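Morning. Coffee machine broken again, so started the prediction first thing and wrote up yesterday's gels while waiting. Chain of 124 residues, entered below exactly as on the submission form.
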Amino acid sequence: QVQLVESGGGAVQAGGSLRLSCAASGRTFSNYGMAWFRQAPGKEREFVSAISRSGESTYYADSVKGRFTVSRDSAKNTVYLQMNSLKPEDTAVYYCAATLWVPPTTRPDLYHNWGQGTQVTVSS
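Came back before lunch.
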């Protein structure tokens, strides 16, 4: 098991940027692929981005490709999501998740460790 805590959410105007962080506990962080999901009010949880255990492979939903960048720092047991050129439709609660699947999957049901979520609100 790995415990995850997201931070870095907030309110920003359209076109602005935010950097989300997901801090993981324990020394097994490197065993997990990591992903970001988001859920807007009244909508289902959707895949945003993922990064492999080594950090060498990254994956993005079409809706965020070219705007978001996922990375991880093994020394700090932390995964990041840099979000640029934010749009109002990016407004959602963002969740960090961990999986033992290799490569990381886009299916939320295959992630068994989740953070509490952090709110991102983008105004026009």
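The chain has a mean pLDDT of 94. Going to sketch it on the whiteboard this afternoon.
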